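Sanity check

After download, print the first record. It should look like this:
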Amino acid sequence: MAPPEGRALYPGTFDPVTLGHLDLIRRAARLFAELHVAVMDNPSKKPLLAGPERVRLVSEEVADIANVRVSYEDGLAVEVAARLGAAWIVRGLRSEEDAAREIAMARSNRLCGSKEIETVFLAASPEVAFISSTLVREIAARGGKLARFVPPRVEEMLRRRYGPGGGA
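Expected structure tokens:
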């Protein structure tokens, strides 16, 4: 594999960060000289965790990856990419439904930003392809087992948030 070059942006809500997100971050970090993880809010979602808490959790989990930066960002991902000097946006694909939605978003990003940006799609690793933050929140709220879905620090935080048996 050629040495990595350039800067990429991986935007998401990371509410909470999952093993699927972390797999994608580790894989994308091998492709680019710098990977910027942008913790963002989605106007159509009400987050469980505040932005600074999500940034802290992601930062703790990727602290061992020298070329990954994590910050809270606001606005359109394509504009965040331009502001940070990223030439690529990284997106993960878990399913055909994800692909349809993400391809439409990639096309929009090429048209709506102040500069043209390319999107790089990475297929989710099979062992984490079924994981979503929504699924994790539902399991946590009902007191289910989380070890196959999130790292231990995130599980601990969710147990504190929901209590050991779940419930809000």
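If your output differs, re-run the checksum step. Summary of this record's structure: The mean pLDDT is 92.
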